[in-house]
Amino acid sequence: MFNRSGLVCLSLIGLSALGCSKETTSSNNIKTGGIAALIDVYADTDTKAVVHVKLVVGGSSSNTYVDLEGQDKLVATADDQTKTLSVVDTGIYEATFSGVGEDTAFTVTLDRPEDTTASDNSGDLPAPFSLDKPTEDLSRKDDALDVSWAPDSSDKMNLDFDGDCIFSYDKDVSDTGAYTVKAGVLESTGKDAETCDIDLLATRTRSGSADSKFDKESYFRLHQRRKVSFTSNP
């Protein structure tokens, strides 16, 4: 049986406009093969990382979350450190590790004494990097914007721009240490274009492997993230 939490979808109109409410189910109701384990490791500094795990039923885009009950638990290891993940919300679990760095090996295990344990989830953290603050007070319409970081790598890189005066923009780029956003790409939100602060989030991502005992849409991803803000003119 599924237990519903949050707002109830009042009508088909409400369902399409607001989206469905979060649903939860006990792990006692679900075999390991029916659980999608969505595992991310986030490092926002050179030495600290958070293991973040979301457990859902019905594929990676499902809104039915798995509440671990009984003796079921998630355990993560980073090199020689081992921690049991804590609940931050129903179906979402985290643990924080310090003293990590480039190529630190992470593993995550869903320990299930009464069902199938899934322990073959692993990946290595990509290298940390520094993100340079772009030149400020350039015109979004007329000037190109140069973004730079160091060192570069062979991993995936994404640049995400967000601010009150622009439409959000993100771009997957080659991790070469530099990328130029052409003039006019960062679009102003209205007729009366304004000056505002823009947040730039750069994310370096490396893929690990998820245990085949889980739902096939499970994944293991490891990220280094860095953020800077700069002033942008119309």
Please give the structural blueprint.
Elements: E1 3-4, H1 12-18, E2 23-26, E3 35-43, E4 48-57, E5 64-67, E6 73-78, E7 81-84, E8 86-89, E9 92-98, E10 105-111, E11 118-124, E12 130-131, E13 138-139, E14 145-150, E15 156-163, E16 169-174, E17 178-181, E18 196-207, E19 219-233
Parallel strand pairs: 2-5, 3-19, 13-19
Antiparallel strand pairs: 1-2, 3-4, 4-9, 6-7, 6-10, 8-9, 10-11, 12-14, 14-17, 15-16, 15-18, 18-19
In short:
The protein has 234 residues and is an all-beta fold.
Commentary on this structure:
The protein folds into 2 domains: 3-126 and 208-222, Immunoglobulin-like; 130-205 and 226-233, Immunoglobulins (Immunoglobulin-like, Sandwich). A hairpin with a 4-residue loop joins strand 3 and strand 4 (48-57). The protein is mainly β and 234 residues long. The protein contains 1 helix and 19 strands. Helices cover 3% and strands 51% of the residues. The chain is elongated, with a radius of gyration of 21 Å. The strands form 4 sheets. Strands 3, 4, 8, 9, 13, 15, 16, 18 and 19 form a 9-stranded mixed sheet that branches. A 4-stranded antiparallel sheet has the order 7-6-10-11, with no helix packed on it. Strands 1-2-5 form a 3-stranded mixed sheet, with no helix packed on it. Residues 1-18 have low confidence and may be disordered.
